[in-house]
Amino acid sequence: MTKLDNKNFMQAVGNADEINELLRRYGVKFGIYKNGVFNEQFFPFDPIPRVISSEDFRGIEKGLVQRVNALNEFLFDIYHDKNIVRDGIIPEDFIYISKGYLAECEGITPKNKVYSHISGIDLVQAKDGEWYILEDNLRIPSGASYPLIARELTRIAAPQAFSENHIVDNRGYAELLKETMEYSNCGGIRAILTPGRYNAAYFEHSYLAEHTGSVLVQNDELFVEDNILYQRTYSGSKTRIGVLYRRIADEYLDPLTFLPESLIGIPNLMEAYRSGNVGIVNAPGNGVADDKGIYYFVPKMIKYYLGEEPILKNAPTYLPFYEEDMKYVMDNLERLVIKDVAEAGGYGVVFGSDLTKEKLEEFRKTIIAEPRRFIAQEVIDFLDLPILDNGETVMRKADLRAFVLSGEKTKVWASGLTRFSRNPDSFVVNSSQGGGFKDTWVLSQ
Amino acid sequence: MKTLSFSFSTKLTFDDYVHDHSFALRIIPPNTEAQKIISCGLDISPAVATKQTVDAFGNNVTAGYIQGDHRFLDFEINGTAEVDSTKHSTFLMPCYLYQSEYTAPDEELRDFYTELKDKNITDVSDRAAFFSDILSDIIEYKKGVTTTATTAAEAFAMKTGVCQDFSHILISLLRMGGIPARYVAGLAFCDGETHSWVEYWTGNQWEGIDPANNCPVNDDYLVISKGRDFRDCAIDRGVMFGRYTQQLQLVRSVLT
Question: Which residues of A touch B67 (CB under 8 A)?
Answer without folding.
Answer: 223, 225
